[in-house]
Write a structure and sequence with these properties.
Length: 300
């Protein structure tokens, strides 16, 4: 492998300055950094693999359906990008056209998996239903689904599936599941990369890192302010990031000839205040308490 690209979601430079990720911090300190401005309009991962903003690709986080009504959608599929393959050439296509074999795993907004010279495993997101097992349409070639299934690959899990479905309310269990997902992803990626003898590898740790930061940042902020905080979340989060540091190190050392590029879709800011909008809407008379399929509250 000549270039190993490792992506994470919701992380920032400060994430790796806590002393929990010494290997990743060394990569950052010994390399060159480029800080970019985010917006909340264009899907960052689509910008990363196309080099284009959503105003050119249509890959908005939300967009009007444009069917004559007022409906909006958060669904975003790779094949819906106008000019895909011609005026807009994804990273893997450009590399293939220049004779490089690619291996791509878990990049969001890439359903269904495109045909490439190498292998491709689509990521979650883009409005796709959260699922644990990989679907055949998310794999190219389709034969790699058997490998992924046998190795226990986990496509995507979010707060809803981990809390409501699996009941992982204990911080140790919750962060342990995030680590299991990252570990299996790294193992599957390494195995397929060697099988297909790729030149360029792109692996993304998405929902695990953004969920970890979402839970950790408020507690770290309160701890820094000397205020009461949930220390069990901090300790479980610390173990998660130490383990993630080990997964990244294992990949870098396994493909020791490759240059390494770290990318992130967006950073996650400290949450200093919390507002319960449902409580406000209830008090203002705009909602009533009810239990339904979509949650605890129905709008009046």
């Amino acid at each position: 492998m000549k270039l190993l690209m490792i992506g994470m979601d919701g992380v920032q430079d400060a994430t790796f300055r806590r002393g929990w990720t010494p290997f990743i911090q060394t990569l950052i300190d010994n390399g060159s950094s480029l800080k970019l401005r985010d917006d909340i309009v264009s899907r960052g991962w689509a910008e990363i693999f196309t080099g284009r903003h959503a105003t050119e690709t249509g890959t908005f986080y939300e967009r009007p359906v444009l069917d004559g009504g007022y409906r909006w959608t958060d669904k975003c599929q790779l094949n819906n990008i106008p000019g895909l393959g011609t005026s807009i050439r994804p990273l893997w296509q450009a590399l293939n056209e220049n004779g490089y074999r690619v291996g791509v795993m878990n990049v969001p907004t890439t359903n269904p998996a495109p045909e490439v010279n190498g292998f491709f495993v689509s990521g979650g997101g883009g409005g796709r239903t959260v699922q644990q097992s990989v679907a055949e349409e998310q794999c190219f070639p389709k034969s790699i689904k058997q490998t992924l299934d046998s190795m226990g690959y986990i496509v995507d899990e979010r707060f809803g599936s981990l809390l409501l479905e699996k009941g992982l309310y204990d911080p140790e269990s919750f962060f342990g599941r995030l680590d299991e997902k990252c570990r299996k992803r790294a193992e599957c990626f390494a195995s397929l990369s060697e099988e297909f003898n790729i030149d360029f590898g792109f692996i993304v740790f998405k929902s695990a890192t953004v969920m970890a930061e979402t839970l950790l940042l408020p507690e770290l902020y309160r701890r820094g302010q000397g205020k009461p905080h949930n220390d069990s979340i901090v300790k479980a989060g610390e173990r998660f990031f130490k383990s993630l540091d080990g997964h990244v190190r294992a990949l870098v050392e396994r493909f020791s000839d490759a240059e390494v590029l770290l990318v992130s879709d967006h950073s996650t800011s400290e949450r200093t205040h919390s507002v319960n909008f449902n409580a406000f809407l209830l008090e203002a008379g705009y909602q009533k308490a009810a239990i339904g399929k979509s949650g605890l509250f129905f709008a009046l």
